[in-house]
Amino acid sequence: MLKKARFAKPVQQMVEYGTEPAKMEKQGSAKSKSGSREGSPSKSAKKTPSPNRKSKSPNRKGTPGELKSAMRKGSGKDKVKKKTIVKSPDLTADGLRIIDMSGQGMTILPMSVVGTNDTGELILASNNLRSLPPEIKRLTELRKLDISRNGIRCTNPGDFSGLPGEIKELVNLVELKISECNLPYIPPAIWTLTHLKILDISRNKINILSPDIGELVNLQKLNLQQTNITTLPPEIAYCQELEEILLWGNVIESLPETLPEMLKLRTLAVNYRSFCAQVDSFQESEELLRKGKMTSEHIPLVVFELATLEVLDLENTKINNVPELSTISLRELYLCKNFLSKVPPSLFNLNHLQILDMSHNLLQVMPDEISRVKSLVVLRLNNNQIERIPQKIRDLSNLEELNISYNRIRYMPNAVGGLKMLRRLLAEKNELSSLPDEICHLENLETLDLTENRITALPMKMHQLRNITTAHSFQRLSKCGLWLYKNPIHTPPPEIWKTEKPEKIFEYLKKLAIIKTENLLRQKLLFFGESGSGKTSLINGLVHRKSILTNGETDKTRALTQTKWKTDNNVDFMLHDFGGDKAYSMLYPLFCDANALVLLVYNHGTYSTDTHYQQIGNWIEFFNTYMPGAVVKLVGTHLDSYDEYAVEDENANLSEMPSRSGSSTSRLQSQMSVQSNKSGQSEWSRSVLSGRSLHSRASVTPNLETSPNLEQIESLANPIPLSRSSSCLSQSKSVQELVKTNVMRQMQTYTESLKQNLEELDTSIETAEKSKQPMQYIKHLQIQQKKVENLLLHPLRIMPDIALVSNHEGLYGVRNLIESLELMVIDNKLFPNAQRSIPDKWQHFKISLKRHKTYSVTWKKVETSGKELEMKVEEIQECLQYLHDVGEILWYRDVPSLAKMVFHKPRILIQLLMSMFRHDMENFLNFEDNKVFLSKGMFEKADFKQARDIFLRNGQISRPLMNCFWFFEELDYDHFNDLVELVPHIDFCYSIPEPSIPKGELYAYPIVVLPWYNKERVGTDFTDRWNDALTKIHKPKILMVTYVLPLGIPLGLFEKITCLLQKHVNTRIDWTNGILGTTKTEILKLTMHGDQQSSDLDTESGDIPLCKQIEVEVHLTIVSEEDSESGGTTLLKELTREITDVMSRTPGLVWRLHTSEEIWRLPSLQFALKSVQFSKQT
C-alpha cells in the first residue's frame, strides 16, 4: 500500500531528448532506513493511473506509465514503439546542461548522450544499466554522475567491466552516486577519480572498504550506509579533506587509530550501540556496569579524540564512564540511557556545546561547574536522581530548554529567573512544593510542565509569562503550554486552573496580586499628550467607566486638572490631566514627578512618522529633560477611526457594534506581543536605555523595558467583510509597530548624543588636568560628567506594550489599561517606594495643614503643626515628601525660594496659574463678550485695548487686568497683594514694585510681568541700546560667561532665568531672547542663541526628524568701570548662582559653562547647586 501510494503520484512531463526543454531536476529517490528499494514501481502501481493526470498541452502523447501500458496491451502494428525518453534538461550554475534519464529501463547508454561536452550533470538512476561505455570520457565537463539503482558489474576488485578505466579522464567530476547497485566490490575505476568530493556507495554489500580509499585525497563526504562493513581502513586518514562519514546500518566492530589525524572530520554517523556486543553477551556485565563495579571500555577511545567532531551520539551504549574528551568542537552530545552517575568533568570545557542530553542515567548531583558551558541551548537531565539545581544555573544565558522531569528536586532555585532565553521548562514528577517568584521573569517561556508535584499555590505574578498561550495541550505529541495536573493546588482553586486557557488562571492571579498588596500608597498618574489626543475623554472613561467625550475646543483642558480615582480593586490614583497646548509649557515642570507613572497619550488614528515629533517626540524630549528615569507608558486613542471594530461593554464582555453598512460586527481577537529585537534591539525588551556599567560606556544602547507585568493587548476588528476588517486590524498593528520603532530610534539618537557629550567631557577634563587649568573649571567639568553618566544609567523606562483604546461607546481597551496600571503600580521594580506603612500621626499632620485658610503655609507654621504631634524636622520633611508624592500637597524642597513654603491646597495654586496661562487667552481678552473687564476691572473700552495690547506684546499685567484674571477669588486688597508677592516665587513671572505715587494711568502700569507672552525678539534696537550704554562707561571692565546647552533648552527655561534676574537689577528691558539691565554701577545683557542641528533620522516621506536637537548658548555679559569697588564680580557671583540653580534643578539638562581662565580663577564664580538649610529641633 505504501509503494502504491508513492508511485500513484503524477510523474512530470517528459519529452524526447533534443526537443523544447521544460524545467526539471531530479536528485534521486528517497531511501528508507529499512533498505527497501524504490527504483522500480510495483505492478499495482503501474496499473494505477494518476487521478490528477491531465494533459496541459495538445502535443502531449501521454505519461510514461500510459505508454508502457499501451505497449503491453497492444500487439503488431498497434503496439507503441518504445523510445528512450529524456527529461527536459535544466542548467547548472555554470550554464552546463542537466540530463535526467532516470527510470527509463535502459540497458545501454545512448551514444547521443555522450556526444557533447556541455553536460554538467548526468542522472541515470533506476535503470537496467550493467556498464558505462568508454565514450563516457567525452563528457569532460561532467560534474555530477548518478548511476544509483542499476546493475553495474564488478565481480572482483580489479574488474573494470562495469565502470571503464577511461572514467579517470573525467577530471571535473566531483560527485558520484553508485548506491543500490548490488555491488560485491567497489569498482576500481572509482579510485582513479582523485578530484572526487562526494562519493555515495551506500546499500551495496561490499563487506570491506578497500585501502585504496586513501587515493581520494579531495573527498569531503563519504556515504557507506548499509554496506556490511565492520571497520574502516587506516588509510582513510589520507583523505584529509573528509568532513562527513555516514556508517548507519552497519555493525561496526572497531575504528582505526588514525581517525584523529583527520582534522576536518565533523560528522561520524555510526551506531555506537554496535560496540555493545561484548556487553550484551554477558548478562552479569550490564548489572556490574550499573552498580559501577566495572568500568565501561567497549567504546573505542578514538571516538573521544576526534577534535573536530560536532555530534557524538552515545545513547543507550551502556557506558558508565566517559574518558577525557578531546572533541573540543562538539556541538551535540547524547549520553542518555546509560549508567552514568556523574557529569563527566571534561565536558565543562566544551565551549561550543549546544545540546547535552544526559537523561535516563543515575545522576544524583547537578554540579555547579555546568554553568561553565555557557553555549548550552538544550539541557536534558530528566529521569535521574537529582535533588538540587545549583544557583549558578543562571549563568547559562543561552539556554532555551531545560528538562529536569522525573527527578527528586524539592526546591526550584530563584536563579532560574536568570534564564532569560528559556522557552521550555519541564519539571514533571518531582517533589516541588512551591515555585519562586523569579520564575515569572522568564518572559520567553512557552512551555512550563509542573505535572505531578506537590505545589499548593502558584506565584501571583505568573501572568507575566505572556508567551504561555495554552494549557494542558499537546503539539505534535509533545506537551505544550502550562501543565499543572496531579498537584494539590488550592490557589487558584481547581475550577480555575483545570482549564486549557491559561488566561483564565492569569486573570485570577492578577486580581489576587492586587488585592493582597498591603500598604499600597496612592500613585500619581501624569497624563501628557498634544491637545485633542483624547486625554480627558480617557480619564472620564477610567473614572466613570462610561464614555464621556469632550466637545472639541470648548472642552480643552486648561493647564491642569486633578482627579482622585480608586479602581474596583481599591488601587488609589491621583490623575493629573495636563493641557496639551503649548501655552502651558512653563507650568509643566512645576508638577513633574519622576516617581509618578507617566501616560503619554497620542492619536493612534492619525499617527505617522511625519507627525511623530508633534504627537510623541517632543514629549519624550520633555520627559528626558525633567523626569529622567520615569516610567512611561504609551496609550494610543481613537481606535474608532479604524473603520469597524469590536467594543467592550462595562462587564468586560465583547459586544457588537453596528457597521456602516447596517450589519453588526462579530468577535475577532488577535493577541499582540512585542518582539525583543535580537539585533539590538528589543529590542522592545528592557527599558529604553536600560542601565549599563560605566566601564563600558559604548555599550549603553536603548532597549525596551521588558517588565512583564503589563497587559496583553487584544486587537479587535470587524470581520464583516473579512477583507476590510483584516485590513483595519493589520493597519492598527502596523501603526503600533511604527510607533515602537520611531520611539526606539529617537531614544537611540538621544543616547548617542549623551555618549558624544560624555566623550567630549572626558577629553576636556584630561586636557584641563594636563594643562593645569583652574580647579574650579575641572571640578565643574567633573560635576557635568557625573550628571551625563547618571543620565545614561537612569534613562526613561518606556514600557514595551502600547495600550490601544477607544473612548467611544464600549470603551475598547480601557479595562485592559486599568489592569495594566494596577499591575505596574504594585511592581516593586518599577515603583520601589509605592508600598510602605504610614504612621497615623502623618494623617493628623495632613489634616492640620489643610485647616489653614491661606494660599500657602509658611515653614514656621509647618513646624508648629509638627511640634504638636511630637515630630522632628527630619520626620516633618519625610511626611511632607510623602504628602507631595501622593498629590495631597505641593512642596518644592529643592527650590530655594519655595522650600519653606507649602501649598497645602494644590487646587488653589492650579487655579491661580490657570488664570494667567490660557490657550484661549486672546478669546478671553474680549471686551465685548467678557463682562468681567467692565465689572471687575472698571475698564473703558479704549483703556482695556491698551492694557490688552501691552500684555499680549510684552507680558506686562496691570493691577486692574490682574484683578480680572483673579476675579473668581473675590480678593480684597490685602489678599490681592499677598498673591502678587507670592507668584514671583514660582519663577514664571516677576513683579514690579508699585510707586507710592502712581505715575500715569493705572491700567497701563505693570505690577507683574510674564516673559512667556513677550513676542519681541532681539533686533537692531537691542544692539543700539547696548552700544549706547557702553559709551557711558569710560574704562569698561568686561566679564563674559557662556552657558552651552548641546542638546537644547526646554521651553520656558530661559524665561525662568529672566525672572530670577529681577531682584538684581534696577532697570531692565526684555525681549523674547534677550535682556538689557542696569545696576548702580554695571550694565548687563543676557542673550540666547540657538542653531538647528540636522537629524540623522530620515524617513520615507522626506527628511523629517523624529527629534529636534538645538544647540543653544546663553551669553551673560557684565560691564562695569574698571576702577569700581567690585568690578562686576559681585553681580557675576549673584547671577551665576541664580542661573546655576535653575539649570541644576533641571535634572536632565546637559550644559557646560565656558569663560576665560581669568574668570575661572575668581572665587566669586558659582557653578554648584545651592542647598536649602532647615532649622534643627531638639
UniProtKB/TrEMBL annotation:
<protein>
    <recommendedName>
        <fullName>Roc domain-containing protein</fullName>
    </recommendedName>
</protein>
<feature type="compositionally biased region" description="Low complexity">
    <location>
        <begin position="655"/>
        <end position="673"/>
    </location>
</feature>
<dbReference type="Pfam" id="PF13855">
    <property type="entry name" value="LRR_8"/>
</dbReference>
<dbReference type="InterPro" id="IPR027417">
    <property type="entry name" value="P-loop_NTPase"/>
</dbReference>
<feature type="region of interest" description="Disordered">
    <location>
        <begin position="1"/>
        <end position="86"/>
    </location>
</feature>
<keyword id="KW-0547">Nucleotide-binding</keyword>
<dbReference type="InterPro" id="IPR020859">
    <property type="entry name" value="ROC"/>
</dbReference>
<dbReference type="InterPro" id="IPR001611">
    <property type="entry name" value="Leu-rich_rpt"/>
</dbReference>
<dbReference type="Pfam" id="PF08477">
    <property type="entry name" value="Roc"/>
</dbReference>
<dbReference type="GO" id="GO:0000166">
    <property type="term" value="F:nucleotide binding"/>
</dbReference>
<feature type="compositionally biased region" description="Polar residues">
    <location>
        <begin position="674"/>
        <end position="687"/>
    </location>
</feature>
<dbReference type="InterPro" id="IPR050216">
    <property type="entry name" value="LRR_domain-containing"/>
</dbReference>
<dbReference type="InterPro" id="IPR003591">
    <property type="entry name" value="Leu-rich_rpt_typical-subtyp"/>
</dbReference>
<feature type="compositionally biased region" description="Polar residues">
    <location>
        <begin position="29"/>
        <end position="39"/>
    </location>
</feature>
<keyword id="KW-0433">Leucine-rich repeat</keyword>
<dbReference type="GO" id="GO:0009966">
    <property type="term" value="P:regulation of signal transduction"/>
</dbReference>
<dbReference type="InterPro" id="IPR036388">
    <property type="entry name" value="WH-like_DNA-bd_sf"/>
</dbReference>
<dbReference type="GO" id="GO:0005737">
    <property type="term" value="C:cytoplasm"/>
</dbReference>
<dbReference type="InterPro" id="IPR032675">
    <property type="entry name" value="LRR_dom_sf"/>
</dbReference>
<feature type="region of interest" description="Disordered">
    <location>
        <begin position="653"/>
        <end position="687"/>
    </location>
</feature>
<keyword id="KW-0677">Repeat</keyword>
<feature type="compositionally biased region" description="Low complexity">
    <location>
        <begin position="41"/>
        <end position="51"/>
    </location>
</feature>
<feature type="domain" description="Roc">
    <location>
        <begin position="516"/>
        <end position="696"/>
    </location>
</feature>
